[in-house]
Amino acid sequence: MRIELVIDDLVLHGFDPRHGRAIADAVQGELAVLLSARAAALHERPSMDAARIDAGTFGVGTDASTARLGTIIAKAVAVAIAPELHDAPSRVDQRVPPIIGKVR
Predict the structure, then answer these.
(1) pLDDT computed for residue 25 by the predictor
(2) How far apart are CA 86 and CA 101, in angstroms?
């Protein structure tokens, strides 16, 4: 079973650009965990091609690590493309806080 997700550009507002690569790496790793946890269910879904996915707005503390940011962002992206992933297991022990605002 194969799931392919291609993200050409990850646009983040309000983050230090020096942390971009570390955040992107954390997002990639967490998306792999989230998608593999529900691979069978996702395999049944039709293919999706989207020019843009809005993963909404979320709040994080000023002391959040890049790994924590990556987990939160990955969860927001995953839920935006497949709402059933909201309860998928995550690499972080704490539950990801709910997304603030509407995911479009």
Answers:
(1) 92
(2) 15
Tell me the C-alpha distance between 82 and 97, whole Å. 17
User: What residues does each domain of the chain span?
Assistant: 17-87
pLDDT in tens, 26-50: 999 998 888 887 777 777 777 777 7
Would you say 73 and 55 are in contact if contact means Cβ atoms under 8 Å apart?
Answer: yes
Structure tokens at 14: 């309000």
Query: Nearest CA to 5 among 54, 56, 47, 57?
Result: 47
For residue 80 the two structure tokens come to: 């935006």
pTM for the model: 0.72
State the Cα–Cα distance between residues 69 and 36, nearest whole angstrom.
20
- Angstrom distance (rounded) from CA 65 to CA 60: 10
